Amino acid sequence: MQQAHFYPIGVPGTKWTSKEVQKWRESQIIQRSYQQDVVLKMDQIGDEFERIQYGELEYDLGCYPLFGFKSKSWDEHKPTVLITGGVHGYETSGVQGALLFLKETASQYLAHFNLLVAPCVSPWGYEIINRWNPDAIDPNRSFIKNSPASESALVMKFVQDLGGEIFAHIDLHETTDSDEQEFRPALAARDGKRYIEGSIPDGFYTVGDTENPCADMQAAIIESVQKVTHIAPADPDGTIIGSEVVQHGVINYPLQALGLCAGFSQAKYTTTTEVYPDSTKATPEQCNRAQVAAIIGMLDYLIAL
After folding, report:
1. Could you count the other beta carbons within 10 Å of the beta carbon of residue 48?
2. Rounded to 5 degrees, what are φ and ψ at 198?
3. Domain limits of the chain?
4. Model confidence band, residue 1 (pLDDT cutoffs 50, 70, 90)
5. CATH class label, 4-304
6. Among residues 14, 21, 182, 184, which one has the fewest Cβ atoms lying within 10 Å of its Cβ?
7. Which pLDDT score is estimated for 61?
């Protein structure tokens, strides 16, 4: 039976004003370190990559430099692959998986691709362990012109300033139990809507683009990831998080219409990964490795084209 819930901030059925946003922001506390967990690990990435500071976020709780990595062997004749992680900062394996790929595996693909990696798009969200930025804005609904989220605007500018086309784009995410425990109730409260409890899939899945699903590539990613961790089964109604399962472990969203990160690059091949870190069947290391396996699955597929 579905149950309605109300969030402790705001008046049920009424959209938040700046007063409620401020109250929500003041309730957030730092729970881990972007500097220790993310920035220091960047020192372990090999000389094949150039580290670029593409911006800085200044918030009440701190100042956050933003970093991207660009392969030094850049060749305009090679296709360019974009990898983004930590658009939702609380989704840990997206950040750590991107760093792990850069450290251990990325150099193996430099003969085939220009690689561009933004490991942690939302460092405030990483430290607070939250989906939103301090203005209660979801960066992954903000990859649009005149974006209201600085996190989204800055990484888009970083990519666009480099010029050239993006051939493929993989955006690394997680679906967590806290989506139902905290973030979806908060979203309903912010927007003055009634929250109805949903379900969380147990396992890995991908989100393709409704307008450009890249079904064969999604299948290659699923095949690669299932060597590392399990794939989410469909719910009894044939859906995952309410969307139709179009093939094993795959659903589709209209990426550009929703302002999602994987849509802004207008790449020919796009996907969003979703790892389930709260599963009893997977460890944090497996989750990080699943993100790496997803990248590898995509790149190997593209090489074989």
Report:
1. 14
2. -110, -155
3. 4-304
4. very low
5. alpha beta
6. 14
7. 87
Are 298 and 168 a contacting pair, CB within 8 Å?
Answer: yes
Q: pLDDT value at position 5?
A: 62
- Check if the beta carbon of residue 126 is closer than 8 Å to that of residue 116: no
In the predicted structure, residue 4 carries a pLDDT above the cut 60: no
pLDDT tens, residue by residue, 23-39: 999 999 999 999 999 99
Question: Is there a contact between 79 and 166 (Cβ–Cβ < 8 Å)?
Answer: no
Residue with tokens 């800085």: 56
CA-based max dimension of the chain: 56
Residues with Cβ within 8 Å of 234's Cβ and at least 6 positions away in sequence, in order, are 240, 245
Nearest of 164, 43, 64, 166 to residue 121 by alpha carbon: 64
- pLDDT tens for residues 89-106? 999 999 999 999 999 999
pLDDT of residue 3: 44
pTM of model > 0.90: yes
Token pair, residue 304, equals 């074989």
